[in-house]
Amino acid sequence: MAKYEDLFVHLQNGNDVRGAAIETKSEKKTLSPGLVSFIARAFTDFLAEKLGKDKSELRIGVGHDSRITAPELMEGCFMGLGETTVYNCDLISTPAMFQSTVLAGSGFDGAIMLTASHLPFNRNGMKFFTKDGGIEKGELTGILKDAVRLADLYGDPSEELLLLAERLPKGSGQVIPFDMTKVYADEMKRIIRDAVKSEDADHPLKGLHIIVDAGNGAAGFFASKILEPLGADTSGSVFLEPDGTFPNHVPNPEDAAAMDAARKATVESGADLGVIFDCDGDRGAVVFADGTEVNRNALIALLSVIVSETNPGSTVVTDSVTSDELAAFLTEKLGMKHLRYKRGYKNVIGKGIELNAAGEDCELAIETSGHGAFKENYFSDDGAYIAVKIIIKMAQLKKEGKRIESLIADLKSPAEACERRFHIGAEDFRAYGEKVLADFLAYAKEQSGWRIVEPNFEGVRVAFEKEGLKGWALLRMSLHDPVMPMNVEAKEAGGLEKILAELDVFFKNYPELTY
After folding, report:
1. pTM of the predicted model, to two decimals?
2. Topology given in CATH for the domain delimited by 182-408
3. CA separation (Å) from 392 to 107, 385, 417?
4. What proportion of the chain, given as a percentage, has pLDDT over 70?
């Protein structure tokens, strides 16, 4: 093992870098400005090779969310990018940083976003983009290996930046302030104007009351720089000010407390719609005027209706935990195709891209977490674009005297649902988990009234189809952790307890699983 390899390898989380930037009682510090500098330098190597350019020719944008460790990590990033021209995009959303590589107003060769999405305040991380989208898992592995090589050459990543700066090769070191948020907001406004086609072209959202809950993250500008200039009333919006301690609620559209905060703000202000974002703005959800929370399955259904109007019969790719009721809505009500794929937004989006490359039309790829990507928007997972699509449709319906709520009035929901997260106590947790899955598959095949659901791309999904026991369960391995999540839904009230009782007959034989 190279001298500093262990410092870098544990930072990889799929295609993102994530670590603890502040030490807490339960977590040691694993992400420092020095580490960031070497990773950023390795990204320039990757980008130069990918584009066939000299590093001195590269134009790279850097932005961050509202986390309190952003300033020090930005300094490390700037130092690492010293052989390129760097554009400081400051506080911004992750989707805007991807768009910085494709919009004509910026056109950067690459971009780095410092964020850890909805994770606790002490965490931070890095996301990397080219005009092709976020880098792949294997590409990040290569970048981290190169960062190890650079650390071995130029010094201890735990040293102060000033000491490292004396040894790292330097170029122009030019850092240019750049208002990428304006470029991105102007593009979102253009999209809304073109789609709504209002008589008042400059104010297509006039007469609409839309509140925003940004969770004290980076996406508060959606209210002030997109909605308000287009004429929308945003009074009653909450938590727009960036605060990396997240004092009000976790910035996560899947979190019950976060959705409840958005619901209260929507109802109490009498708004037509509420919009909620995660910390870095790549996920979103909405709340209807009556307080109905539209996230997870309901959000997928709503966006699918919008897609079906322009692309009837196209495929919607979702993750594996979507409900049977959603599947029926997509295929029977909308006449679309539905493909349940693996958990993980990169898996879902990647599958959508793959289908299109193979000639099958897929306009929407979306995970229940709120990561949703449209083909027409570069398959970028973008919470603001999700909100824009819904707001456009709401404005169009208003001109017809209709309401957005009507679009998913026929969507049914399971009677009961839960998620159990089994912790795997075995030392080789992956091998143990794989054995549990194999045993569960064999066991399920022998049970009366149980049916193995196929196709299925991860874990084991079982449908329960007997009198008084109707629903499904999905058991799978976590992507990264020693955990086996199990999602269960029942079609009838009281059914969840019965399904769990039948499942417990199997799980009682596996003492290394606890929840």
Report:
1. 0.95
2. Alpha-D-Glucose-1,6-Bisphosphate; Chain A, domain 3 (3.40.120)
3. 27, 10, 32
4. 99
